[in-house]
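User: Quick sanity check before I run a bigger batch. Here is a single chain. Can you write out its predicted 3D structure?
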Amino acid sequence: MVVDDARYVLDVVTDNLQCNGANVTAVDSAEEALDILQRERPDVLLSDLSMPGKGGYWLGGSAWGSAVVL
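Assistant: Done. Predicted structure follows.
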């Protein structure tokens, strides 16, 4: 899973991972990511730490145990 509020970053990272064979769920907010994490279990969670509202630090703490947080 990739989480970033900057659309161009989200697109570049997602495209790069997909070109290398990864299945990627891409979202633009920590809240949306946490909602998805309650239903899905990605192998890796890659998140922007500094997003408006609740950011990557909040998401990492909230998702602890749901994924490998980088």
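The helical segments are 7-19, 30-37, 56-63.

User: Great, the batch can go ahead then.
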